[in-house]
Design brief:
The complex is a heterodimer of chains A (286) and B (320).
Chain A: H1 4-30, H2 32-47, H3 52-56, H4 70-100, H5 105-119, H6 122-137, H7 142-166, H8 170-178, H9 183-211, H10 215-218, H11 238-246, H12 251-281
Helix pairs in contact in A: 2-12, 4-7, 4-9, 4-11, 5-7, 6-7, 7-9, 8-9, 9-12, 11-12
Chain B: H1 2-6, H2 18-71, H3 74-77, E1 81-82, E2 87-88, H4 91-122, H5 127-141, H6 144-166, H7 176-199, H8 204-212, H9 217-228, H10 230-246, H11 249-254, H12 272-279, H13 286-319
Antiparallel strand pairs in B: 1-2
Classes of the chains: A mainly alpha (286), B mainly alpha (320).
Chain lengths: 286, 320
């Protein structure tokens, strides 16, 4: 024990251990720096722009002070709502199909498709929506943007539905069947209500994800400087406005983009935190 | 099926009138019909997903055919992209994509492994871990266009002054290096959360055996945890690479959008995704548009292959 070489070596090992522990801590917490920096900067730059005027007006021409982002707010709400309307039924039904038929050839290909859909770059979805809807219909439209976003929502909803339903005890379903309930009523009256928390979390996460998506809207919803609620015409949305105004050379437009960024950021973070609260309350595994 | 058919037919003493029985039989038949319709609806929902992916692949291929036919392999190796002269060589974009993605990976790996080790090994629970876990999830939640805007306003001037200090003759700030920095922040959450779940799967007895032999914590991590999770960590990094390759908006905003072959990592460039985002609506010629779609097809195929390989590795790892 008193061998000096040996105690030196042990001391060296302990020192190395402590050194790497500190390094791990430092590196892990260094990742919070960009997040804090972004939050701080967006809040600082955006908070002074936001007032009632900002929310109910559209952008003024360059050079005039003031103006707002009402057209982008309305557009975002319409586009995302329409996308949810398309994606939620198909996504939940697809998830139910996968959890009811876990094996089988179609289920295998279906699962593979969901994996692929989840990995497709958003810009490629934009190209697809352009060829499927914009070109045949003869012009950019909010509807085509919604379809593109719906395609991005699908894999998240399918996955969360499947995972939630898989975790339900089989006795639940068997009890319902034993009472003579037909299959569709077992699903709608027993399985889905029990799994609603997990499905809801998936839906909200997917909404949070698509609200900030810009790339699929570039060639579909396209953007519109005026207030419009016509889904067959081009429509502005928050991320599109941020992209267009942030890359413009005008300071007034930058200010609008900062305000819009803050609103978008708060909305997306709110959805994420809310989802997490739901998940924690109902003990959902996401 | 049979039980629900028979149930109403059993004549209970209370129900004597045949009208009531008929009504019940009709109702049962209606339910059975709805049941089979519902089952078909489920199959249709499953089919829609498969058809969607096949349709995407088919659309990309048919729309990029003109460019594939006309340009062939020149498309990949040509280093000039000049739509005005009808020359389409995508090599600058391939290089730009590979450079930004791998540089971003290089920056992101130490941080994401540190987070994974921290959350998987040092502090799996407690408020300390919760703060970090939530922060990492929020990093993933911030929209990419906001990263781009922040990068443009804050990061680019910083990179510009760094370039000026390094003595680069045209310090622009925008360029491949800025894009890689932004990208690395964006992909850290994916690599970290996958790595964490892998590290938590290391069997307790393996670690305890090493501790029993007198190993320090670092030695356990270095010689037990990391070798055991090697394939899983690799898959996590692969999936993050898939993310980085297809990321569009943040990169488009800070990379400088130049179609010239980048000479250094500080030079402005373009990635495959950013060139599509910039030029798609301006493409006035069939070949031009088709060349952009061919880039999209390449992006699609690469990310699909990377995702499938990554998922396969993770599946095998978790089933072991």
């Amino acid at each position: 024990m008193n061998d000096p070489m040996r105690t030196d070596h042990i001391r060296y090992r302990i020192g190395k251990n402590n050194g790497f522990r500190i390094l791990t801590f430092v590196l892990a917490f260094a990742c919070m720096i960009p997040l804090v920096a972004i939050l701080f900067f967006i809040i600082k730059a955006g908070i002074t722009r936001i007032n009632f005027h900002f929310l109910v007006n559209i952008a003024r021409p360059v050079g005039e002070k003031g103006g707002g982002i009402a057209n982008a707010l309305l557009g975002s709400v319409i586009i995302v709502a329409l996308a949810s309307l398309i994606a939620i039924p198909i996504g939940i039904l697809g998830g139910v199909y996968l959890s009811e038929n876990p094996k089988g050839r179609l289920a295998y290909w279906c699962r593979l498709s969901v994996d692929i859909l989840q990995g497709i770059p958003s810009i490629v979805i934009g190209i697809i929506a352009y060829f499927w809807l914009v070109k045949p219909l003869g012009g950019f439209s909010a509807f085509s943007g919604s379809v593109a976003l719906a395609i991005m929502m699908l894999p998240v909803i399918v996955r969360s539905t499947e995972e939630t339903l898989k975790m339900l005890p089989p006795s639940l379903k068997e009890a319902a069947f034993a009472l003579g309930m037909p299959f569709h009523r077992v699903i709608f009256k027993v399985i889905l209500p029990v799994g609603i928390s997990g499905i809801l979390s998936g839906v909200m996460l997917s909404i949070a994800r698509i609200t900030g998506e810009t790339a699929p809207l570039l060639f579909t919803a396209f953007g519109n400087p005026y207030l419009s609620a016509d889904v067959t015409a081009p429509m502005q949305s928050l991320p599109l406005l941020i992209f267009n105004y942030a890359t413009s050379p005008y300071n007034d437009w930058h200010d609008l983009a900062w305000g819009a960024s803050l609103i978008l950021l708060v909305w997306v973070l709110f959805l994420n935190v809310f989802t997490k609260l739901i998940a924690a309350k109902w003990k959902v595994q996401l | 099926m049979e039980t629900s058919l028979q149930a109403p037919v059993i004549p209970s003493p209370a129900v004597r009138d045949t009208v009531g029985i008929r009504k019940r039989i009709r109702r049962s038949f209606r339910q059975i019909r709805t049941e089979s319709v519902f089952k078909q609806t489920l199959v249709i929902a499953g089919l829609i997903l498969v058809i969607l992916v096949l349709g995407i692949l088919l659309t990309l291929i048919t729309q990029s055919l003109p460019s594939i036919r006309l340009l062939g392999l020149k498309f990949i190796w040509g280093s000039t992209w000049n739509p005005v002269k009808n020359v389409y060589g995508a090599f600058p974009f391939l290089l730009g994509t590979l450079l930004t993605s791998f540089l971003a990976l290089l920056i992101c790996i130490p941080f994401s492994i540190a987070i994974a080790v921290f959350l998987g090994e040092y502090y799996p629970s407690g408020w300390f871990a919760d703060v970090l876990k939530n922060a990492v999830e929020l990093i993933a939640a911030v929209p990419s266009v906001i990263y781009g805007f922040w990068g443009l306003a804050v990061l680019v001037p910083m990179v510009r002054s760094l370039e000026a200090r390094l003595g680069i003759d045209q310090p622009l700030g925008v360029g491949i290096f800025s894009a890689s920095l932004i990208l690395s922040v964006m992909i850290i959450p994916y690599a970290a959360s996958l790595g964490r779940s892998m590290i938590q799967m290391v069997p307790e007895h393996l670690k305890e055996a090493a501790y029993g032999l007198g190993a320090t914590r670092w030695e356990v991590i270095r010689h037990v945890v990391l070798p055991y999770t090697r394939s899983g960590l690799f898959a996590g990094i692969l999936l993050s690479l898939g993310r980085a390759l297809g990321e569009t908006m943040a990169v488009t905003m800070v990379i400088g959008n130049s179609s010239i072959l980048p000479k250094s990592i500080f030079a402005p460039g373009n990635t495959m995704a950013s060139v599509i985002a910039n030029e798609f609506t301006e493409a006035d010629k069939t070949v031009y548009l088709s060349a952009l779609i061919e880039l999209g097809l390449a992006l699609f195929l690469v990310t699909v292959i990377i995702n499938i390989i990554g998922k396969k590795i993770i599946d095998r790892f978790t089933n072991e």
